[in-house]
Fold Serine hydrolase.
Amino acid sequence: MNYLHQCKYRVELIFSLWRNTLILNLIKIVTIFSVIFLASCNSDNELDLKSFVEKKLTQFLSDEQAQVVSIAIVSGENSYQQHFGQFPDATKPSNETIYEIASITKTYTGLLLAKAITDKKVKLDDDIRVYLGGARYQNLQYSNEPITLRHLATHRSGLPQDFSFTREDIKNDNAFELISNYSKAQLFEDLSQFQLTSRPGSEYQYSNVGTTLIGYILEKVYNKPFATLIDEFITRRSGEEHTKLRRTRDEISEITQGTNGDGKLVPLLSPYSFAEGGLTSTTRSISRYMRYLLNSSATEVTLSQTLLEGSKNWHGHAFFWNTYKYDSIMPKIYHSGGSIGTSSWLALYPKQRLGIFIVTNIASSNTQGQLNDIADEIISKYQEVTGFE
């Protein structure tokens, strides 16, 4: 190669290196600006969502004249918690504030039932008298159709909402006294005397009695207390440090006390409840519960969310979960919780791995319904800012 050709080659080489370096630098610049732009968009979206949540929940506090309200949202492995309002002593709620979750407890009972089925401790369509000692409970059938565990888990057993009190007792303001003095022995005595008026499985009737009964059946087949089953099979696996039954004086003193629709401070119900509504928890722990239910591949977790009764296209029931549009691109499973002075709402969207929990220490006539509406609006807003379907 002569000198002229060598110079030409070197010039072309230098130009090529300069061009490639320029392109690489341009790519780096575009990438950096893209990351900054996307981070900015994500930040704006997050601020937009937080602003929307704050608007909805502060408005709720104002309309209801409530003290506090807390929210937890999970998406995949991520979680977000926020709290509004303050207590009479001027303290504010936090991720560690302990609330009654009332009937959301039923979803834990349903998960334990699913676990017992996978462990072959029980069968879903077994006559419940198999686990009760059949001779005493011949009444628990109608036209030779017995009550099964499936009937109990979907509120189709024909058993009443409660044995311990009636609507008249609520009107007379003595329901709490009756509940707080009602025993396990009394429940089984009432159960042995109750007469069904329809075929099990034929009609939906919400029943705390049925859920409580499953709790006692689970204790019997595992030979362990219900609280131990919750710890061993659910909260220890999900990482929920604060979800539990609280029975001792010190534990009860930790629970947030609530008010009724008239602003009157009311007693806690959870110390006298069981598998139907006795659990208490925090937003941090419920966030972990939601993540566990949305992300776990455990057989019992999948089974517990399986439709047992009702429509795949509209409303149905899983293991104590209510289901909505089970066969759609965005199915929902949900449950509300209502104590004497606390209301809560929990909804999961399994296909999107998305969940929302809202709790407040007030219980008026339609507080749970309002939390339902707010949760739906927040999820719609979440869809809007994230673009997920």
Q: What stands out?
A: Residues 129 and 137 are 7 Å apart (CA to CA). Confidence is low (pLDDT under 50) at residues 1-19, 26-41.
